[in-house]
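Run log, item B.
One chain of 379 residues. Sequence copied directly from the ordering sheet:
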Amino acid sequence: MTRPWSVSRFLVAVLVLAACALAWVPAGSAWAASRVKDIASFEGVRDNILIGYGLVVGLNGTGDDVDDDPYTRESLIGMLERMGVNTRDGEMAPDNSAAVIVTATLPPFARQGNRIDVTISALGTAENLMGGTLLVTPLLGADGEVYAVAQGQVQVGGFVAQGQAETITKGVPTNGRIPNAAIVEKEVPFELAGMESVKISLRNPDFTTGRRIANAINTYLGTEVSEPLDPGTVLLRVPRGYPGGVVALLTDVEQLRVEPDQLARVVIDEQTGTIVIGENVRIDTVAIAQGNLTIRVTETPQVSQPAPFSTSGQTAVVPRTQIEVDEDEDNQLTVVNPGVTLQDLVNGLNALGVGPRDMISILQAIKAAGAMQAEIQVM
């Protein structure tokens, strides 16, 4: 009966040791690393922007006013004439049609017959596109060629509820979307399989990150086939006889993990008071004091009038003014030690009771004093 207990204790001891070993594993670069596909893109694998002009019909009296939007009137006349209906001799005042701009994104390697989503935006005085139907609309690329044709029922996320005394609008009812509305009619030619080399473009150009990507590729393939060309480009030469060709090579490369390097940067949005401080920001020895001078003037006039039934005296307004001055004398001078981390800097500023608006001024002053080893970017 003692042997099972011994085995059980042994298993428990093994599990405890394994848990301790995992707990002591340092937070190395493997945990902070990113896949190559998340920080870079491959040459030629890109989207293309499409745009078109069309008509939406079937609106419930919320379309364009053809008197104010002559292009809507001309578009309706031209469409009806192509269908054999002559309307130039009569009056036309429909309010259930609207001129719209149709936009879409053609994904890389899209083939003829594939369907893509489109976005519909009112061009004229239409109030709501809900319930409308987009008529056949060619979508053009930057070269003026037609790459897709769209048509379908418009889906609008917003709405308008209106009464005699109040109107409620949610979202943007003059903007809609049609899933799978456009059919690809023309492909963008690109031969990926026959390429002898591929350029990897970094989304955030950096010398160190580019070199790390090249080293990771060379280490994985066991040969020197990759090198950085500039901060934003890494050249990858396709090895001969690679199993699966270029597609398999890019599939393997994009799964490699690399720890991207970052610039020491502080990003400030003065409009919203948002501050983003990078991990590598360092501060030299500096003393910080922050205080505001607040002057508050309060007017509480009082009315002085004679006693009831008095035959003398008159009513007068007596001004009473109260002035308060707050110089924030409780705020103290704080010393920030050299080489502090991001967390130390935030803790020090929070200890002063500094808000985001004042923190922006403090960071800019530290940078002006030459004590911040980082770049400040104001949005």
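Observations after the first pass:
- Residues 204 and 232 are 7 Å apart (CA to CA).
- The longest helix spans residues 2-23.
Flagged for discussion on Thursday.
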